[in-house]
Amino acid sequence: MNRSRRAVRPRNGARAGPGSRRAVVLVVAVVMTVVGVLLGCAPGTSRSADGKSQIPASASPPPAERASTSPPASAPVPAPPPTPVPRPRPADLDIPSIGVRDLRVVPYEGTTDDRAGTRIQDRGVAASPYGRRGGVGPGDVGNYLVTAHRLSAGGPLRDLPAVDVGDRVFVTAGREVYEYRITETRTTSFRSARSLAEQRAAVPGAPGEKPTRAVITLSTCATPEDDAAGNYWRDALGNPEHRIDKIGVLVSVRPA
Prior knowledge:
- By secondary structure, the protein is an alpha+beta fold.
- The protein folds into two domains: 22-55; 91-255, Sortase, Chain: A, CATH 2.40.260.
- The chain is built from six helices and ten strands.
- An eight-stranded mixed beta sheet has the order 5-4-3-7-8-10-9-6.
- A hairpin with a 5-residue loop joins strand 1 (46-47) and strand 2 (53-54).
- The longest helix has 21 residues, at 18-38.
- It is elongated and about 130 Å long.
């Protein structure tokens, strides 16, 4: 009987089997992992002085953050509109309110009432200067300058002072008719450089201002008014000091 009990009782110091060893290793690994997380030793993290976990400085930001730090693409800048090219050309002038009809307007390179322009006016027609010191052509953006005599050479613009605000002026050039409406009256002094610059400006009365619309300046002498005031001054071409200018703006264009 005693021999049987000794045969089934395990001896002290006997070795554990393979299953027992694997269980011990698994328990140790789990314990070490838990301790590492609690102490902040997990890979890719560190702890600040206050004990909070931090991402290492060398770590790259998420893709969304990298995209947000990229500079925005520049929008294309639209090209400025082309500058209109003046088209000086012969034309015919009609001012119904004073009975002017089919007055020929001759373009020339120069400025208002210079020698070349005066010679054209002496033929009984109107003159229209263009170029650096002149104006533009019919219907063009800028100042379309038209000058003619009031007393001599048949006086085609003898009644220009009677033209009033709102009156219509028609200029026929090529296959188009340009309609202007009178908006104001100005007086120009041939003895004032400033006054002449205002008359010849692309925007009448505003030298240096960039034009945005088409305007017309109809100009003739103020000889009767100057003489009545005792002002007999004349320039080398016989022009009195003052001229009467009627300013109009383009309101429509139609086929001739």
